[in-house]
Amino acid sequence: MTDLADLVDRYIAIWNEPDSGKRAAAISELFTADGTYTDPVAEVRGHEGIGAVIAGVRDQFKGMDLKVLGDTDAHHNIARFQWELVFADGGENSVIGFDVLATDGTTGKIKSIYGFLDKVPAGA
């Protein structure tokens, strides 16, 4: 469980990394080459696709950080966790979501992320 909770923290850190080069390196380190990211507004495969989704969210929600809400629940090679998007200097969250992360079961790299959006600002 500790390894998966750490992996979740490292995954969340990618979303908060302002430097695109460091983000790309972290994605390459954490995801399998054919890793996928799927949520209600995106479905991508591979490092470049995942990087593009993250860059798009960062552009749309400038000045905001992703933070894990509560504890990570995990077993085998699967973890689920809730997160929020908040301004880096504090305040109420703008977005709340719930993700399920699955590793490949051998290398410990992320094979897939399945995201659900619980709270989204109007017009987003």
UniProtKB/TrEMBL annotation:
Q: Which residues form a coiled coil?
A: none
Q: Which Gene3D superfamilies match?
A: 3.10.450.50
Instruction: List, alphabetically, the InterPro entries matched.
Output: NTF2-like_dom_sf, SnoaL-like
Q: Ranges for the SnoaL-like domain?
A: 8-110
What is the name attached to this protein's record?
A: Polyketide cyclase
Organism source for this protein? Streptomyces varsoviensis
